[in-house]
Amino acid sequence: MATNTSWYALKNTEGVVSPALLVYPERIRQNIQTMLGMSQGPDFLRPHVKTHKTAEIVNLQLEQGIYKFKCATIAEAELLARCGAPDVLLAMQPVGANIERFLKLVENYPKTQFSALVDHPIIVERMGRRAREKNRPVSLWMDINTGMDRTGILPDETGIELYRKMHAHSHIEAMGLHTYDGHIGNTDVARREEECQKAFDLVLALRDTLAAEGIEVPNVVAGGSPTFPFHARREGVEASPGTTLLWDAGYARLYPEMDFLPAAVLFTRIISKPAKGILCTDLGHKSIAPEMPFPRVRFLDKADWQQKGQSEEHFVIECENSDKYPIGDTAYALPVHICPTVAKYARLQVVSEGEIVDTWEVAARDQTLTL
């Protein structure tokens, strides 16, 4: 039996399989309320589902009036449609088989307004051609590269020309502009806001140039979690945070001024004590995102544990007082990077008042649902 009365602790761990990822609905609800409070209301909030990929968390947002969502995969888009989400943006340019999958989504779920990002004339031409052949308009946003150099078109004459093509096409509804500024992460709030504004000015300049030609840009979607506080204050801009729903140790350390609660906790056990001062838990690469340098987690109840090494099934810990920790002892930890950690788990264990009360399937961790 656990005697720890901390918010994350289970009252009884005997039947809990480890490692596990625990989630706390009350905290998720509070994070949703915080998101709404920071934004200008549901019309200007478009949370990303890539962090959780879970229907129940989508439903918690729908219950609080959020109706616009962003996603990274066709499976996530289909999950949102199954939940009854009215407005879904696929924030990944469809290529290859995903062009037909996206168009099939539009056909199969007519109650959801689907749209997608594009940043290249080849894809605009292909999407437009298939939409014309199906006699069904397709809704597209132009993705702009403001410095991250991952996706998007530069906001110069090439970007202007691409949006002209989208706007003029008979079977393309040009939805507006999208930009993700994930390269902006300065821990100094003022500097981060300054860098965010500088990048966003490029978007505004492109929009103004198009407006001068008589081409309306009806909407703008901008940012992720680190720049959410700034974009959330912009008039007429949809802000699109994602990590804010579950939060993690990485963002909590970098951005302590952001008032979000950790709502997902890793549960692990000591499985071996191979040498004096050494412990090993069952929290291996397969159970937590391993791309970060150490520390990869923040142990909530073990301040004297130092992370030494990790392999597929094992997490090796150095501890001067290892004698006080018996084999089978439990530990709770916040992942440094929650998004790829969730994808390691088929199911989330739902905790309320120290008890596991439900299990939520991470339904969109697979590449496909039905399409």
TrEMBL record:
InterPro entries: Ala_racemase_N (IPR001608), D-amino_acid_metab_enzyme (IPR051466), D-ser_dehydrat-like_dom (IPR026956), D-ser_dehydrat-like_sf (IPR042208), PLP-binding_barrel (IPR029066). GO terms for biological process: D-serine catabolic process. It comes from the Bacteria. One of its GO terms (molecular function) is D-serine ammonia-lyase activity. Gene3D superfamilies: Alanine racemase, D-serine dehydratase-like domain. Residues 263-352 form the D-serine dehydratase-like domain. Keywords: Lyase. Transmembrane segments: none annotated. Belongs to the DSD1 family. This is D-serine deaminase, pyridoxal phosphate-dependent. The lineage of its organism: Bacteria, Pseudomonadati, Bacteroidota, Flavobacteriia, Flavobacteriales.
